[in-house]
Amino acid sequence: MLTQSDFLDVVRLTPLVAIDLIVSDADGRVLLGHRRNRPARGTWFVPGGRIQKNETLDAAFARIADAELGLANLTRAAARFEGVFEHHYSDNFAAEPHVSTHYIVLAYALSLTSAAPIGRLDQHSEYLWLTPSELLVRTDVHENTKAYFR
Asked: Which CATH superfamily is domain 4-149 in?
C-alpha cells in the first residue's frame, strides 16, 4: 500500500489506469453517483475505480463492482467493453496545487434487469438514475461521464 505522499508522486508523474462502470437499468437509465472525493468532487459521475498494481482486470472489475455498487461476484464477462477513454483533471485527490490527474479508463457497460443496486456511499454521497438525454443536458454531470453518451 502506498503512502499518501508516494501516491501523490504517482499521480504527479504517471497516468492512472481505471475501470468505469456504465450501469443501465431496464428502462435505459444510467446510474450516476454524486462524487465525494477529488478529482471531480461535487459532480455526478458513473461508478468506477483504479486498478491496483498486480491486479488482473477480472479481479479489478469484481472489486470495483462490489465496492462501488455493492454487487458481489459480478464478472467482467457479464459486461460489454465500450472502449478506452482519457480523463484529465486539473486537480488531484490531495488538493495539492499544480498537480493534475490523468486517467486511462477502460469503460464497461452492463445492464441490470433486477432491482437497482443500493450502492455504497464511500465515494458517492447519493445515487441517481438518468437517461442519457437527461444527463447530457445537466451542468452538474461531469464532462468525462457525458463523453460515454456522445
From this structure: Nucleoside Triphosphate Pyrophosphohydrolase (3.90.79.10)
